[in-house]
Amino acid sequence: MANLRNIVAERLAQEIRKGFWEPGARLPGERPLAVRFEASRPVVREALRMLEDAGLVRVQAGRGAFVLDPSVGEGEASLGQAEALSAGISNLALSDLAEARILVEGRIIELAAQRATESDIDALRMFNAMMERAISNPTAFKQADLFFHRQLARASGSPIYVVWLEIILRGVDEERNDVTRLAVRHREDILASHKTMVAAVADGDPVRARRLMIAHIEEFVRNVECNTALGLLPQRGGQAPASADRR
Q: Which residues form the HTH gntR-type domain (predicted)?
């Protein structure tokens, strides 16, 4: 049952991400979805609950499941302040943003390791599976990567961390775009790191989870700095790479 539930959830999540279902649209009811996926209604119900936990739909009793905008973080939608709070954050040094990520995402994953439900963990694995299938598609890979980090924030059970994460993600969006478009091995490394973090969360080990998150962030910074120095990535803020003989 769990495998079929995950398959249903993953396929619907992919359709939402690709824009097949517009934000605000109501998904077909449990019965039509059960027929489509050759699954029972309880399996479909569990799949929809996974999508709701992942912030992709909102299930309303008696009305059905309505699609949320996958490009908008739940914290941003709930408080509507991320835009104002993140003004100018893209101008900060990458090292400053990395320090903020370690403080915020390090605490997020600690809390997730203590509070995550089975449904939260299933959603994290679902997004990793989406990343694995998108390993040769940088744009789809990055989107699934964002879903993963937002799901971790939701699994922490702390709404304020959901908002803070959204602000920080805006600050490193340019670098995320660049790194995911490098050689496929960079995407494979990111995915491998995600899998070890999910294992730590599933084991309920906040110390190991935090250590893995810090290593994940530090590796991201090293990739950006190294490839920028090699001229493979633009300097932060979109400036052209410095010439090798510039003094």
A: 2-70
